[in-house]
Amino acid sequence: IFLPRKINNFIIYHNINPVTIGNSFDKENNKWVSRIKDFETGKSLNLGRFSTPEEASQAYQEARAINAEKAKQYLRDLNYLPEHIIQLIK
């Protein structure tokens, strides 16, 4: 199945280590920083600074779930794939 580039770029990062994806350590402030790109705009969103990588990862996973819903709606609007395939996007 050929997917729109926007969808392919979204799902390609799904299997990367969830504790490190979207997170980096800010040595100056001694905090973990979490960021994600918004699915609709492509703009980088700062999700906050956290004491542990797990907290930063949780913020990233919550934002990714919101982006996944946006990606699913994008595909529904295109009438591109059957619903059971769209539901596989996480």
Task: Please outline the helices and strands.
Blueprint (H helix, E strand, L loop, with lengths): L4 H7 L11 E4 L4 E7 L6 E7 L2 H26 L4 H4 L4
Antiparallel strand pairs: 1-2, 2-3
Question: What do these coordinates show?
Answer:
It is elongated, with a radius of gyration of 15 Å. It has 90 residues and is of the alpha+beta class. The relative contact order is 0.19. 41% of the residues lie in helices and 20% in strands. Strands 1-2-3 form a three-stranded antiparallel beta sheet, with helices on one face. The chain has three helices and three strands.
The spatial strand order of the largest sheet comes to 1-2-3
Overall number of strands: 3
**Biggest sheet record:** 3 strands, antiparallel
- Distance between termini? 17 Å
Helix content: 40-55%
Q: Count of helical segments?
A: 3
Instruction: List the helices and strands in order.
Output: HEEEHH
Key terms:
41% helix, single chain, three-stranded antiparallel β-sheet, 90 residues, alpha+beta
Give a brief rundown of this model.
It is built from 3 helices and 3 strands; from the N terminus they run αβββαα. The protein has helices at residues 5-11, 53-78, 83-86, and strands spanning 23-26, 31-37, 44-50.
